[in-house]
Amino acid sequence: MSVIADKRLVLLKGLIKTLPQASLRSLELALGLTKDEALIEVRELISIELEFRYAREAVFAPYLPLFETRHDGLNAVEFPHWLLDNLWRALESHEPELYQQSRFALRGLRAEDPTPVVFFRLVTSAAAICRDHPGDVLPKSPARGDAEEVAEFAHYLDLHRIVRNVLAKLPDFLGRIDAEKAAALRLMFKDACAISEEGGMRFMEVIFSNLEDGAQIIKFIATVSDRPNDRFLAESELADFGERILERIEEGLADLKAAFGGKGEPQPDAGLRVAQSVGQLQSFSHYIELTRDGPWSKRVAEASKQIAGLVESRLKGAERIFEDTLVMRSERVYGRVKKDVPKMDKYPKPEVVDRARNCAAFVREVRATANAGGFATLHTKTVQALEAQLDAYFEALLDVANGEDPFDSEQVMSFFELVTDLMEALCGEEKAVVGRRRVASSNVLNPPKVA
């Protein structure tokens, strides 16, 4: 018998259904040790609701990325979140038995187990609800275009058997595609096209949404098209994917030009964006036959040229940026003999330090794509020159720390931290750790006393 009154229980169930998943998890944890009967009943209601939400995610797993914005900035189909929430509630009223079965089917389900039959039946029912009862899915105050979103999602749900099949084999397709895999992928694409006029495009859209690197979709397009040239693909129904990637590359180049051209400070992730753009361009050259005057080959060649030019201009100015940060001065030792020592009368300004760190991070981030980007030789020379600067400055600081002349420990230590941070940004943590160990074994914390 329920401790909570029936009317309050109904209200409580409705309230729990409206709460976000993170809040429900927090409430479940908070009520985990309670001994109050009413609160125990509330915790059980929360646990049941969470279980149903996990079931919803399992039932619509192939389509969940279609409700999220891509992290790589590529344009993609994105459905509103209310559509999935309302559709799941509609299934609860239209298919109560299947709705309950989904919760129990999820218990004990392992990753290697086949998809439960109830999941397929729920998705099929969801497609029927979107077509026959769209009012049960639409929000209370629908905006223009909401009905079209519901109708379009029904077409995606029609592909659920094919989509689950291809996503189960996605790791294999991301590797080397042999003749057998290519034939299987083409057959699934053909089956998707047979379901509806735009079925092939929707099939690729679901694969695209489930790829972490969106440029990999070029591999799937080239496979189902039997590795065509760019002229053929640019005029096909799947051309939109290539256009999205090229447009994103060109937009990123415009941003990088603005940063490198002096209109603003280069962003800390500039190197990652360059590496991403180079990787996206490689997808075209690896999987598509680029003709000399093809519509995509021209854009790929132009983008590659611009990226190489931008990176080279940045690499050529790297030594100057380090010189402005790790300032040295000449000091007379004996007679005409001089040596360079760190100039420590003033610590570099924060913007100067940030510029040096961003530069070091940029040089390191573009290392993996230096060969593909066409700037490997200059990159190698730049890295060697920057490492030589860091090593010389570090050794000069050690001479100060281990010398017989008195010095300010805090001041010298701050410059040690500066140079080791730059070592880590440029060369990685291992080199910085070695440097910090040498600092710890020096006399930087025990300076000579003034006589």
Write the SSE topology.
Elements: H1 6-18, H2 21-30, H3 37-59, H4 81-94, H5 96-106, H6 117-132, H7 146-157, H8 160-168, H9 170-174, H10 179-195, H11 199-209, H12 217-224, H13 230-234, H14 239-263, H15 270-287, H16 295-316, H17 318-325, E1 328-334, E2 337-342, H18 350-365, H19 370-373, H20 376-402, H21 409-427, H22 429-440
Helix pairs in contact: 1-3, 2-3, 3-5, 4-5, 4-6, 5-6, 6-7, 10-11, 12-15, 14-15, 14-16, 15-16, 15-18, 17-18, 17-20, 18-21, 20-21, 21-22
Question: Which characteristics define this entry?
Answer:
22 helices; mainly alpha; 68% helix; 3% strand; flat; 451 residues; two-stranded antiparallel sheet; 2 strands
Using only C-alpha atoms, the radius of gyration works out to 30 Å
Q: What is the percent of helical residues?
A: 55-70%
Q: Tell me, what's the shape?
A: flat
- N-to-C order of helices and strands: HHHHHHHHHHHHHHHHHEEHHHHH
Termini gap: 88 Å
Count the beta strands: 2
Largest sheet: 2 strands, antiparallel
In quaternary terms, these chains amount to: single chain
- Structural domain tally: 4
The stretches of 5 or more residues where confidence is low (pLDDT under 50) are: none
The strand line-up of the biggest sheet is 1-2
Number of helices: 22
Structural class: mainly alpha
Report the average pLDDT across residues: 87
How much beta, percentage-wise? under 5%
